[in-house]
Amino acid sequence: MRSRVTVLGSLVAVALLAGCNPEDARNLKQDVGNVAQHTGQSLGNAKLAASVNTVLALRKGVDMSGLHVEAKEGVVTLGGHVRNAEERRRVVETVQGIRGVDKVINKLRIQP
């Protein structure tokens, strides 16, 4: 995080030294801040999805080959198929217990 702030500050300083007018510099600073915020959120979402996938891959009785995991701001959506109702229960309960997961949306289907 600190390195990201340093990079952002450097970009704004370069813009000012390059001769941008104050309004352009403010706009640039705001745009860079927005990009940094969205990048941070995307990285957080990817990290949570990776954590969920890792925990499920290590969980006995869970077949990851048919599962899809998406994460956004603490909400994890589970999709794909499982072998039976017990596996579906196991997947959902496991994900609910993972740090950073605030809500689980269960779209799992039982494979015929």
Descriptive overview:
The chain contains three helices and three strands. Helix 1 runs antiparallel to helix 2. The longest helix is centred in the middle third of the chain and has 37 residues, at 22-58. The chain has a three-stranded mixed beta sheet with strand order 1-2-3. The mean pLDDT is 82. It is α+β, with helices and mostly antiparallel strands and 112 residues long. It has a single domain, classed as Histidine-containing Protein, Chain: A, CATH 3.30.1340.30. Helices cover 58% and strands 20% of the residues. The chain has helices at 2-17, 22-58, 85-96; strands at 67-72, 75-82, 103-110. The protein starts with a helix and ends with a strand.
Secondary structure blueprint with pairings:
Elements: H1 2-17, H2 22-58, E1 67-72, E2 75-82, H3 85-96, E3 103-110
Parallel strand pairs: 2-3
Antiparallel strand pairs: 1-2
Give the strand order of the largest sheet, numbering strands 1, 2, ... along the chain.
1-2-3
Q: Span between N and C termini?
A: 47 Å
Count of separate DSSP helical elements: 3
* Percentage of residues in helical conformation: 55-70%
Mean model confidence by pLDDT: 82
Q: Classify the secondary structure makeup into a structural class.
A: alpha+beta
Order of helices and strands: HHEEHE
Q: Over all CA atoms, what is the radius of gyration?
A: 21 Å
Assign the CATH class.
Alpha Beta
Shape: rod-shaped
CATH architecture: 2-Layer Sandwich
Beta-strand content estimate: 15-25%
- Low-confidence blocks of residues: none
Specify the biggest β-sheet. Answer: 3 strands, mixed
Count of domain modules = 1
The CATH topology turns out to be Histidine-containing Protein, Chain: A
Count all strands and give the number: 3
